[in-house]
Amino acid sequence: MTARGPALGLLLLLLCPAQVLAWSCVWYGECGIASGDKRYNCQYSGPPKPLPKDGYDLMQELCPGLFFDNVSVCCDVQQLRTLKDSLQLPLQFLSRCPSCFYNLMNLFCELTCSPRQSQFLNVTETEDYVDPVTNQTKTNVKELQYYVGESFANAMYNACRDVEAPSSNDKALGLLCGKDAEACNATNWIEYMFNKDNGQAPFTITPIFSDLPAHGMEPMNNATKGCDESVDEVTGPCSCQDCSAVCGPKPQPPPTPAPWRLLGLDAMYVVMWTTYMVFLLVFFGAFFAVWCYRKHYFVSEYTPIDSNIAFSVNASDKGEASCCDALGAAFEGYLRRLFSQWGSFCIRNPDCIIIFSLAFIAACSSGLVFVRVTTNPVDLWSAPGSQARLEKEYFDTHFGPFFRTEQLIIQAPNTSVHTYQPYPSGSDVPFGPPLDIGILHQVLDLQTTIENITAFYNNETVTLEDICVAPLSPYNKNCTIMSVLNYFQNSHSMLDHKIGDDFFVYADYHTHLLYCVRAPASLNDTSLLHDPCLGTFGGPVFPWLVLGGYDDQNYNNATALVITFPVNNYYNDTEKLQRAQAWEKEFINFVKNYKNPNLTISFTTERSIEDELNRESNGDVFTVLISYAVMFLYISIALGHIKSCSRFLVDSKISLGVAGILIVLSSVACSLGIFSYIGIPLTLIVIEVIPFLVLAVGVDNIFILVQTYQRDERLQGETLDQQLGRVLGEVAPSMLLSSFSEAVAFFLGALSKMPAVHTFSLFAGMAVLIDFLLQITCFVSLLGLDIKRQEVSCCQDDSLFTVWNQSEAAGGCHLCSSLSSQKNRLDILCCVRGSEDGTGIQASESCLFRFFRNSYSPLLLKDWMRPIVIAVFVGVLSFSIAVLNKVEIGLDQSLSMPDDSYMLDYFRSLKYLHAGPPVYFVLEEGHDYTSLRGQNMVCGGMGCNNDSLVQQIFTAAQLDNYTRIGFAPSSWIDDYFDWVKPQSSCCRVYNSTDRFCNASVVDPACIRCRPLTPEGKQRPQGEDFMRFLPMFLSDNPNPKCGKGGHAAYSSAVNILGNDTGVGATYFMTYHTVLQTSADFTDAMSKAILIARNITTTMGLEGSGYRVFPYSVFYVFYEQYLTIIDDTIFNLSVSLGAIFLVTLVLLGCELWSAVIMCVTIAVIVVNMFGVMWLWGISLNAVSLVNLVMSCGISVEFCSHLTRAFTVSTKGGRVERAEEALSHMGSSVFSGITLTKFAGIVVLAFAKSQIFQIFYFRMYLAMVLLGATHGLIFLPVLLSYIGPSINKAKSSATQERYRGTEREQLLNF
């Protein structure tokens, strides 16, 4: 051991001088000009030279690893300055990951200054250079080889590959590698950085990658830092956003819930099919058991299977009336007497009633002068107090409204794909049809023409420049135009710019485009063209926003161009808003009339949907009018009971029908007027739906009243007013039941938060209530006058009722004081007398009534028919329940457009887009950005929390198929930290005034904002944070500093007064492409989930502020997040109200109310079945129709239910048959045929929304209502209807004792 020690020491002494002597340079200092302001280095093969002391700061800043001993290096101070300038762009994008930038600086420092350059640098080409100052001949190094360790290159790339560029929503290497980040690797990245064609390298440096010595050279293979390692004690490892190794395994979305299946089939189908089979087994088992029981105990097997006989349910029928029976009978008697007296009064005093009614109608309808119609889609679909609406208000208030979007999607159908062959080498690149040079010139002409469109508003001109988004205004007034032409500065000459000779083209628009789609924020495309990619407005043009129809990220394969003109929106500034709308109108007119056989254009503007909705409504006015005209014509004719052709105008009731229709329309006008007085605006749904609803209710009541009178026989000694009073006493309680239950149901439906349902319910409830009041007043009086027309002569047209005189005998007001004994006066022309056939006015039964009484009712209620009916209807119900959860939710935008709308072409072209709507994650005012803790909770760079706001959005973007967040967020705070670093040339101030100095300013008085010390390299905090932030937000990007925040973030940060703090801020990204309502709804719900999770992990609960997502479509799609709950609530409230009103007005007939509400519920459930079969989605429009179907179902069910309860027949079958006979014909001829006639016309409407949500749903409403009311309900009542009310039966027999009616009751 002792002998080896001196020997080893001697060996070291011998080797050390040898190693020192081996350290030599290949260059030192700068020589001739290479290009522009770039110079070659001077060849030098001597030993390293001590660095002058004025270069110490630069050496410590750039290459601290070479700062030792006397700092002998192979570069002078000027070379260090050149190195610093060359590294500004990588510094701005890569320094957010210190280890990445450390490795990169190692690569360049070893190249530029290493004292052992000669070991890994091999000069391959030089040229002589005469220094013009000293006249000395020097040698320029024109080319050299750089031997780089392959392991070093890979380690450097691995440390940098995940680094984000927050302002461009892309990887930083996508901006620094000369190609897309995904196509970048260690070798082509370094080759690109050392290629002189990139615009940064002054001469060609050829990297040779090897870990082993080659050709006598020792590759540079310095130690590297992984992105998960700290560079020093001050800085930490890179953030999770910039280093996947820090994050751990990539997060996985939660598994999709498995569909509920049984036996390999949809579980709902299996459950409902099984339930239905069990029901049939039990039901038919009970049916046959009763049949056997009857056959055993009763003589005739044809005795009806009535539950009064089969079961002892009504064993108490023979006993005394219960308290409820007595109460019900008393209430029924009170209503009967009240309406009888009221009817008699109306008949005796028609003129007073009519005048009062007209005055009431005039007073209420006068409110229409204050009417306001809401067409703003936001007001139509979003409640003022909804979460999305409040968040929209917050965003608009703090950041300004989201800009108005005018967009073109352009295709070139007549142009084929062409191939670009790069020179001198490279694989062929196909270019899609719209990227042909000729097409691009034509599109640029179109774009320029649109820019020059001039509109007029209030005698002033409005141009795009007046209203467009110009983020750098007033320094740069260029409008933001998201167009591929902005890569060429919207210039024909730049589009034609090419470099080449007579034989080859070295670079042209293909070259520039391929570079710009990879580095849209670049100010130099680094090709031979050296043209900028940054848009003329000062911001990047992302390729996924301006190109469409490409595969993966092969932008060159685009099949469509997308041009977007963002226009300023205005918050509470109607004047400016209307100026923008005026320009949009001219834009629409221009594009509609633009003709170019080479281009296919689909387009939209911010006002397009609203305009097309208005046009659609106007376009179908004629169809709707025809629909109403058909219903009016039917009503006018069907009310009369024509006995013969000669008595057509005598027996017709055209005048009365028209009067009834006018009453219905008047009730609608009164409802609109009353709420217009209050200030509640109308909506299109109210205007389109409520007349249909009220007409259904009103017509049903009119037919029941008139036809009941026509079938009634005037009693002996009974006057006309007494007879009509008695008739009204019979039917008015039924009219009250239907109308009041509907009105209450609608008024309670107004509790809904959905604007469409809320407004509809208010107007509908009031219209139905007023219609009932006018029917029992004005219409009853008009009915009396019409009957008098048939009985006595009239001196004036009965439709005018203009002659009013006092009749002393009656002591009241009457029409025509002198009444002759002449009968048979014509309808409408009542002064003309018709033929006399001696029949006069007699009780008569219509053919329809006789059909229901003699044929239909007995057939329906036969023993063998009733089980079939129950089985069929329960089967339909089971099917509807099975598909209940399969009805789609949402509203396809295309359905709301007319068939000939230009918007349909635009909706079809949305498939070409590759980015969805922008989404902003807003951090409300209150957060402390000046503290380290507050910064770490938000930022995404080094030292930030792994669950910070930016990091969580970044993580969500990695799961884009699940979260529908398509890109990493743009983060103003991370870019600010990169901008303010002392190593960067971005943040500079004048040393005398402390005012901001842009990086492009060349002035010795401009110094860096923060010192190049360990403290200065830390993030700014406290006052420093607020001192430099306004400078960052006012800095425009330039070649020396691409991080300026003016264009990207000027609207993203609210600076509080006097620059004392930061208020609300946002972090923007984009959704993935969204096409269907389900896509939009899911994207919104996922964004809300992400924001809530951010709020929780930041610990902001109870802090008074939070994080929320905002996108322009949220206010429209928020309703679909709660549409199921809203549907259940509204339909439950409607059914509950109907039940309570029915219970009261039927005199506490609990079981009757239950049966009626069950039938209505079955109708509503079956409506969902029809919606599934017919492809009708659940949304605000269909929900309004469902609520309305509850109301209309009351008309089909209530009259028959009440007729059943008041019937005095013995068994349920007989009572059901009587109720169906008397009420069925009126319901069928009234609401059913009237509505059916009008609905059929709607099938010819031009708009799809009318065809689907009105024709289909209205038709389903009427058919389901009619079948359930006239088929299912009578059968159900015949099985489980309530027992006869003995008190009512006794009261009825007592009332008609001694008249011929007594015989009919006992028949």
Automatic annotation (TrEMBL):
Belongs to the patched family. InterPro entries: HMGCR/SNAP/NPC1-like_SSD (IPR053958), NPC1-like (IPR004765), NPC1_MLD (IPR053956), NPC1_N (IPR032190), SSD (IPR000731). The chain crosses the membrane at residues 267-293, 352-371, 621-642, 654-678, 684-706, 727-748, 760-783, 1128-1146, 1153-1174, 1227-1245, 1257-1280. GO terms for biological process: cholesterol homeostasis; cholesterol metabolic process; cholesterol transport; intestinal cholesterol absorption. Residues 620-785 form the SSD domain. GO terms for molecular function: cholesterol binding; lipid transporter activity. Its main location: membrane. It is a multi-pass membrane protein. One of its GO terms (cellular component) is endomembrane system. Keywords: Cholesterol metabolism, Disulfide bond, Glycoprotein, Lipid metabolism, Lipid transport, Membrane, Signal, Steroid metabolism, Sterol metabolism, Transmembrane, Transmembrane helix, Transport. It comes from Zalophus californianus. It catalyses: cholesterol(in) = cholesterol(out). The keyword Lipid metabolism applies. It is found in: Endomembrane system. This is NPC intracellular cholesterol transporter 1 isoform X1.
